[in-house]
Design brief:
The protein is mainly beta and about 350 residues long. The protein contains 5 helices and 24 strands. About 10% of the residues lie in helices and about 30% in strands.
């Protein structure tokens, strides 16, 4: 590491573009993902030995007071490490009790000396994926990446669900107040494990307001200062996200919202665009695969989660099995409720290889 640290200096960047790359039998990364809350996923081209993947072989660091990585004052971040996707993907997330400011730059390492395939081959740090090619042309070598905040005008948020990921580009340029409002909830983890409280196929599905507490009760997510509606620059087309507004008949609050929002499953502009000045669309799904996951979420059945109230907040609560009662859905260890597991902003990745 000292060799890399000296070559990087304080720039935090070291890459070796190569000509005439070689291929090795060792496991190699085929995709990398990192977000601004420290979740990292690196997928390999073959299965890894689970006995070799642990907190002893997978590390994350924040820079210390000197602002540089791989120096003596680096701060090690403890977290959860596991293999997913059939043993091909290394997943890391900082522990809930660990202070990890959203947006921090961090270094992440998987040790080649320790992590091996099921056949006993050490991983190889060569990278031939999207973005750039880097490496030293020699089999072996740690995978080392730097996760940095994406400074693009319109960053991308990733929603992780039971049926896949939905990437959403935020409209910071068109609806800045509403996009920043969403970011404040995403960055502090408010949207993690939220339920799909209102699922209306052919129209919308709504989330952001509730999760299930450790005592198996619906828990309302604390709201922050309301944000004013910003209708006009965008329309409620298929795949856009709209800020939900209170339906309480109070004209003093019907032009603003807080943490709840919904995905437009179809073009709803002719309907929503004329309601009380219209709704604010602050983001849009970026790809056909994301739209497919959005539709898959809408395809789950619903149950009436509050039959004693007419109408109720959870009249169309999305579940994975409609034969279950509400109590079953809440307490099922397999997660019978349809939820948003994690929401965070995608990071820019810079890679170093030994």
């Amino acid at each position: 590491m000292s060799r890399i640290a000296s070559s990087m200096g304080r720039s935090g960047k070291h890459m070796e573009p190569l000509e005439g790359r070689q291929l090795f039998a060792s496991p190699q990364a085929v995709s990398m993902y990192a977000d601004n809350r420290g979740e990292v996923q690196i997928t390999f081209d073959q299965k890894l030995d689970p006995a070799t993947v642990s907190t002893r072989s997978v590390f994350m660091f924040l820079p210390g007071a000197d602002g540089a990585f791989l120096t003596a004052d680096d701060i090690k971040i403890t977290g959860r490490v596991k293999l997913i996707t059939g043993g091909r993907r290394v997943w890391f997330r900082p522990a809930n009790a660990v202070p990890f400011p959203a947006g921090s730059s961090y270094a992440f390492t998987i040790k080649s000396k320790t992590v091996k395939s099921l056949a006993g081959e050490r991983i190889d740090g060569e990278w031939n994926g999207a973005g750039f090619k880097s490496g030293n042309g020699v089999a072996g070598g740690d995978i080392m990446i730097l996760g940095k905040k994406d400074k693009g005008i319109n960053p991308i948020a990733r929603f992780s669900t039971q049926v896949g990921n939905i990437d959403v580009r935020l409209f910071l340029d068109k609806t800045p107040a509403n996009a920043v409002n969403f970011l404040t909830y995403a960055d502090d983890g408010s949207y993690d494990n939220t339920v799909i409280q209102r699922n209306l196929p052919g129209f919308i599905w709504q989330t952001g307001g509730y999760r299930v507490s450790p005592t198996n009760q619906f828990e309302q997510i604390a709201s922050k200062t309301p944000v004013i509606n910003e209708p006009g620059p965008t329309q409620a087309t298929r795949g856009t996200l709209s800020l939900a507004r209170p339906d309480d008949g109070n004209p003093a609050t019907d032009d603003r919202g807080t943490n709840q929002f919904f995905f437009n499953l179809v073009n709803n502009e002719s309907n929503l665009g004329s309601q009380n000045g219209g709704f604010t669309e602050f983001g849009e799904v970026t790809s056909p695969s994301g739209l497919a996951v959005m539709d898959a979420v809408a395809g789950f059945p619903t149950i009436d989660g509050d039959p004693d109230q007419t109408p109720g907040i959870f009249d169309d609560l999305a579940v994975q099995n409609s034969s279950k009662t509400l109590n079953d859905a809440i307490t099922d260890p397999q997660g019978a409720l349809v939820t948003i597991r994690h929401v965070a902003m995608r990071n820019k990745i810079v890679q170093w290889v030994v």
